[in-house]
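Dear H.,

Thanks for agreeing to be a second pair of eyes. The structure we're designing against is below in token form, covering all 282 positions.
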């Protein structure tokens, strides 16, 4: 089993990267918050296809959690994460900074991205994409990767990162990797660990209801009607609350009055205190 070096400080990280750069090796980055599952490992595998060396960051980013959210109880399984990455064999370094390393005392800068960050997640988590953009931009500057891989499960986040890279002229290829799912279609997520057995059965309905709504829209049902039907179906299936079901343009995430050739359906719904998101092409 491959032993992977762990860098806890920026100096350690840059020391290793400098060696790779001197050898003219391409560097890939996979940012994560840990609690790794098959979906994360698929991102690392994808990164390795495009780079000679892959850095996996493990950092639970406090800047993207509001005070009432689950920062303190977010799953932290660092030793298990190391084992999974070592067994998979595609990572070449792990960057696991502390909060004080990432955000030293007096840190006062925040990046806000417009465009695709408007609406959807922002309507319910207005702090979220500012925290994501800030930490991702720091990771990009710390690792200086040639490419970075993000999962399509967090589809709006992927579009925000793409816009940030484009707007700031960062020479980084951003790759979106397909969502990895359980056999019943539930998108893999670290937060799935919060679900009890009964909730887990209900959660499996999320992707099924979205697929039906996408088909309804393709068959000519007006977009607002397909969205409303899906929201009602989620509540009838046992979800406690639905934040949104939205069919949007896949690139801009703008609202659609009529379906176009590049549409995406996105949703966020709650089972007790667990918030699940999913999306797929229409």
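And this is the sequence the design step returned. I haven't edited it by hand at all.
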């Amino acid at each position: 089993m491959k032993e992977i070096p762990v860098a806890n400080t920026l100096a350690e990280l840059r020391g290793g990267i400098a060696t790779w750069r001197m050898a003219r090796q391409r560097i890939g980055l996979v940012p994560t918050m840990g609690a790794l599952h098959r979906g994360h490992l698929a991102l690392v595998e994808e990164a390795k296809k495009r780079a000679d060396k892959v850095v996996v960051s493990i950092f639970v980013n406090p800047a993207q959690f509001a005070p009432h959210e689950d920062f303190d109880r977010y799953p932290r399984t660092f030793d298990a994460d190391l084992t999974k990455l070592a067994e998979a064999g595609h990572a070449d370094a792990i960057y696991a900074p502390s909060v004080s390393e990432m955000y030293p005392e007096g840190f006062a800068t925040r990046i806000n991205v417009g465009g695709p960050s408007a609406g959807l997640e922002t309507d319910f988590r207005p702090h979220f994409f500012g925290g994501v953009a800030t930490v991702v931009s720091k990771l990009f500057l710390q690792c200086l990767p040639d490419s970075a891989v993000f999962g399509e499960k967090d589809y709006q986040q992927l579009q925000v990162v793409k816009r940030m890279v484009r707007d700031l002229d960062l020479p980084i290829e951003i790759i979106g990797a397909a969502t990895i799912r359980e056999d019943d279609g539930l998108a893999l997520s670290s937060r799935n660990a919060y679900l009890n057995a009964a909730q887990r059965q209900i959660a499996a309905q999320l992707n099924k209801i979205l697929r039906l709504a996408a088909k309804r829209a393709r068959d000519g049902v007006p977009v607002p009607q397909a969205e409303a039907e899906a929201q009602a179906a989620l509540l009838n299936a046992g979800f406690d609350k639905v934040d949104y079901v939205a069919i949007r343009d896949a690139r801009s995430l703008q609202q659609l009055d009529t379906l176009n050739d590049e549409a995406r359906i996105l949703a966020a719904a709650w089972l007790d205190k667990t918030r699940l998101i999913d999306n797929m092409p229409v």
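Two observations from my side: The radius of gyration is 19 Å. The chain has ten helices and nine strands.

Warmly,
E.
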